[in-house]
Protein: DUF1214 domain-containing protein
Organism: Roseibium marinum
Amino acid sequence: MSETSLKPRLTSGETDWYENELPRVIRPYRSHPLRTLTAIALVLVLASLLGISSAYLVIEREQPLDAVTIGPWQAYPKAGTAEADPYSVAIYTRGAVIPLASGEGLALVARQDSNGHQLDPTCVYRIAGQTPSARLWTLTAVNGRGDLVETLPGRVHVVSQNILRAPDGTFEIAAAAAPHSGNWLPLAAGASASDGLRFVLRLYDAPVTTGAALDGVSMPVIERTGCP
């Protein structure tokens, strides 16, 4: 007689009694097919919602990834290249923005001043110092969504060719809604703090178009000099 045949055989009722006497944590678990399908469907729905929500929040911030930060300025050297990440491509596509290619130049964006405070279109700012070497550069004021605004003189930028400079090559620019003497960057007329403000510095035909080339370069400081 085999060893298997000597083992006691439990009937169905005895098996149920035996399992009911076991602690709950070690009882055999019999999953229900409908319950399993419901759990899988719930996990898939939650994962989809999480993925869509996170992608929406990243795109809604309108700040591309892989930023290189220099003081208050942020540059995106990979924008407009094949190495740009999908989120950055989606941000530029949504805003109908064509970034400068690496052979054309580089754009730097400031959303805060040099002390880390959010830019306010109702305040007055002093932008001073030097920029990286470039054949031409422009400094533009836009609102928090990156849109151009209406100003008193009808312009929203200054150009390097028209800048008054000190003997050492440095410059000072007053960014304000009201006219200022010297270099004046007009801000939005009648704007409110909720409109937001960004400064966009575009360097054309500049050698600093990669993240490595931006290390140690000199960028203008942004100082708040007054608010209403």
